[in-house]
């Protein structure tokens, strides 16, 4: 529900969605579906697909929406810069169970570190520790925190930070002492 963001203009609606094998990759697949619904042209790079049935269902839904999947990520960053308006980083998330040094994530992050087009990271920028922040990870232009900003968001220096997660139950908010922002009207995303 965090997309489309005002930071993604429709004049060039092409978006590359880079998905990792864990939970953040599944969120990337859902993001690609939403982008397609709002007339963007997402392309997905999902090199290590999860065997989880829910993730397979997300993949099937994307395929049925005619969202193309890349078989490889070009290492020539100029090809990515020329072909896409933005990249959605859904490679590694807060769970970070797949370390940056492991393939295929290491190669994806090495490429994303050099592109010039905007990067929109979902929840935690890939290569960042969810608590301490970034050192050697990517530097996104936009961060979309899911449910609530993680501790690492304090070190985010990009242009825009959004929170998507109006759906948090009150007992969870109380337990973790969260103070969610006010969401205007029926919006599910708010800029911080």
UniProtKB/TrEMBL annotation:
GO terms for cellular component: mitochondrion. It holds the Pfam family YjeF_N. Residues 1-180 form the YjeF N-terminal domain. GO terms for molecular function: NAD(P)HX epimerase activity. Signal peptide: none annotated. This is ApoA-I-binding protein 2. It comes from Neopipo cinnamomea.
């Amino acid at each position: 529900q965090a997309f489309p963001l005002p930071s993604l203009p429709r004049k060039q609606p092409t978006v590359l969605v880079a998905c990792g094998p864990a939970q953040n990759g599944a969120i990337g697949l859902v993001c690609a579906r939403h982008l397609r619904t709002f007339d963007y042209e997402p392309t997905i790079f999902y090199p290590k697909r999860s065997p989880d049935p829910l993730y397979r269902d997300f993949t099937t839904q994307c395929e049925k929406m005619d969202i193309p999947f890349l078989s490889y990520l070009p290492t020539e960053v100029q090809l990515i810069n020329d072909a896409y308006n933005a990249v959605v980083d859904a490679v590694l998330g807060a769970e970070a169970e797949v370390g940056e040094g492991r393939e295929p994530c290491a190669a994806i992050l090495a490429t994303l570190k050099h592109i010039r087009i905007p990067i929109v990271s979902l929840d935690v920028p890939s290569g960042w520790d969810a608590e301490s922040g970034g050192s050697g990870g990517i530097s996104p232009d936009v961060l979309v925190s899911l449910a609530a900003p993680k501790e690492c968001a304090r070190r985010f220096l990009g242009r825009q930070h959004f929170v998507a997660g109006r759906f948090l139950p009150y007992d969870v908010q109380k337990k973790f002492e969260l103070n969610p922002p006010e969401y205007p009207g029926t919006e599910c995303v708010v800029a911080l």
